[in-house]
Amino acid sequence: MDVKALEPMMISGREVLPLVEGGKGIAVSTGVSSGAWAAAGGVGTFSGVNADSYDEAGEMAPNVYHGRTRGERHDELIAHAIRGGIAQARLAWERSNGQGRLHMNVLWEMGGAEPILHGILEGSKGLIHGVTCGAGMPFKVSDIAAQYGVYYYPIVSSARAFKALWKRSYHKRPEFLGGVVYEDPWLAGGHNGLSNSEHPDQPQDPMPRVRELRQSMRDCGVPDSVPVFMAGGVWALEEWSDWIGNPELGAIAFQFGTRPLLTVESPIPEPWKKRLLTLKPGDVLLHRFSPTGFYSSAVRNAFLNELCERLDHQIPYSGESVGEHVAELPIGARKRVVFVTPADRDHALAWIASGYTEALRTPDSTLIFVTPARAERIRRDQNDCMGCLSACLFSNWAQNETGTTGKKPDPRSFCIQKTLQKVSHTDDIENELMFAGHNAYRFATDPFYANGFVPTVKQLVDRLTMGG
């Protein structure tokens, strides 16, 4: 690709390289990494999702919860998140040396999204230039961002989603629409925006989808100078040369979520970085275990394998003998009888004989069979819930008047706050959730990373600018 083809673009009020660091959840995109990306002339994005804060000595301050109820812990979580977001914004600003642009990424479905956004933006005025927001339909982000003179960047995976957002609220604040992030729902890491009409095993070419998105933006009166950020599956720009300067697409910037994981400034633990260099095609699984209810993509490890095992050890049941559910199966300490099919009863007895003795009920009238140790961990994690999501399938927390979804907790899921904190702050990459995009296997084959080379952010940005 001709280097000259990659020209600076107006993003969040300044001309910068159209190279954007994707904002990656808890403690993965930090002020250090995003500040370095901005210093290299692009757009750095730190995560505002329960970000790390620091004590007076500059050491990381652990998020400790003292509340006895979920509601009390939820209030503590919001306070922790605001402190952490402000700390990361200040750190990013210092590292940027006044270059590039700095964005903050948040999830609309995270617990306390609105007060957290207000708190961080109020406490870091002038340090943050844009807010990217996805994982849900962030109708209110335009009003919140505009209140602080900050640009907003909705994350969508279809033209239909953008149209709904524009019609509902964005048309009232068009001057602060900095761009639209198109996140490929099949290739991006973390949570993915697959709709019910799209099949997880049938990926679609992003070009027609982004072309449709641009047309919907035009129909809404959004000028072509407002960029679309292509996110998910972007590795080397030489593979996207037909996108650059393409009049059908208007202004296009490129967002990188996976490649910045393997940089000197990336805060992820060393075992995680080393694991990235060994991945093979298919090692990243698109799954639906997340307590958000969204699909998400993560590295296959013991953590994901155990979740898959729970589904393999699952049978439907009934409280009374009905239809094919005629076989009695006593479960639990009190040996209460439920009814299953004769074949499923045989499966259940075999699992119990193998040590999977705990039968946990799901909201879908099924039973999963797990070991006693796993059952205890599931119950403990559900009891320790701090309301990190607006609604959680795993714990049945909901950010409403009753504090509950009204459904049974789902033991087929997991505590996402706990596992993302652990994977980003410990060396355990086997027993915790490790998000990554589906192109992560390319670290092992890209000559740029030969002999285990780990670049600085500046070296990576220079490489990307050259097309590699």
Could you give a short description of this structure?
The protein has 13 helices and 20 strands. It is of the alpha/beta class and about 475 residues long.
Which descriptors would you attach to this protein?
alpha/beta; 20 strands; three-stranded antiparallel beta sheet; TIM Barrel; eight-stranded parallel beta sheet; single chain; globular
Folded structure, characterized:
With 468 residues, the protein is α/β, with parallel strands linked by helices. It has two domains: 3-279 and 443-465, Aldolase class I (TIM Barrel, Alpha-Beta Barrel); 302-425, no CATH class. Helices cover 31% and strands 18% of the residues. The protein contains 13 helices and 20 strands. It has helices at 25-28, 31-39, 70-96, 113-123, 141-147, 159-168, 206-219, 270-276, 302-312, 342-353, 372-383, 416-425, 457-465; strands at residues 9-11, 14-16, 19-21, 43-47, 53-54, 60-61, 101-107, 130-134, 151-156, 180-183, 190-192, 228-231, 252-256, 284-287, 295-299, 314-316, 327-331, 336-340, 358-361, 366-370. The strands form six sheets. The protein has an eight-stranded parallel sheet with strand order 3-13-12-10-9-8-7-4. Strands 11-15-14 form a three-stranded antiparallel sheet, with no helix packed on it. Strand 1 and strand 2 form a beta hairpin.
